[in-house]
Queue: 2 jobs
Job 1
Amino acid sequence: MTIVTLTEQTYELLRRRAEAVSQTPDQVADQLLRQQLTPKHAYIEVVEKAGGPEAVIRGTRVAVRHIVGYMRLGETPESIVTDILPSLTLAQVYDALSYYHDHPDEIERKIAENTEEYAKAYLREKLGEEGYLRVTGHLAKPA
């Protein structure tokens, strides 16, 4: 861990922002610093979603992980904008790929979190085995 010293005024701004978004000042500071210090991607923004922050193509709901997924299925940037997501431009797709190459761990984690196996494990952890079986229809409801 590294310590950064802030003025009282700056820390107060940070504390207020953290309180407004239900995070710690450390979490907000980390996000803000990453946004300012990482390479800029004109077509990509990181938005807060139910599952946490996710990189998407600005002005759309298309996640960078979706573009990576299409590429892994054998699509090309050209086929993505022509056949799959015609509302996108090649520049947006290439910027998504560039973002992926700048942040591979982040995107790979999001890809891993969006699998059936991950969802099952998450439900089992949160609901317990009996709750999981009930929710998935594998346990009969009591009469």
Job 2
Amino acid sequence: MVRLFLIRHGETSWNRESRYISSIDLDLTEKGKAQVLALSKRLAGESISRVYSSPLRRARQTARAIAEPHGLRVKVLRDLREVDFGFWEGLTYGEIKGRYGDLIDRWSSDPTSVAIPGGESWLEVVERVREVFRKIFRENPESKVAVVTHGGVIKCMISNILDTDRLSLWKIRQDSASLTIVDLVEPDKGTLSLLNDTCHLGNL
């Protein structure tokens, strides 16, 4: 069995402003840095053997904090990057709705039926997330592994494990610096053991 500690990166300024963020490479805020330090302390006692990260700075900064107590180097995997939001990047939900009508509502209800303008198709996201987690599973038999990535990627992974790819996806909450745990017995078969836990954050 492979235990995956799925970690969403700490807060950025666009997270705080509820803006859609994918490829824009923002740093963590001071609050975000405090969040990941708290999560690092929580996981310091776990026997984590490897730490993977998205290539984006907010994830890499989070991953370094998680890896440090274990004396590990962070392995960056490009396919752990966030969903590409295309022309929606940097906009709030209200701004997107104002410019694109009900397109975002239809995408939220069924992402397979709508293409994000200038962005990534849902099938592309699903396939790359499946493949990157298959790779992680193969590389880490009988291990505990931390994977620092983004809300959309974690939601895809959870949906894959729960055998649901559409309507329930955006009903899964993923807070900044949250911890989700998945126990895999096969690359695409496992148990969701913990979801979006933030008890380590206290009043942060």
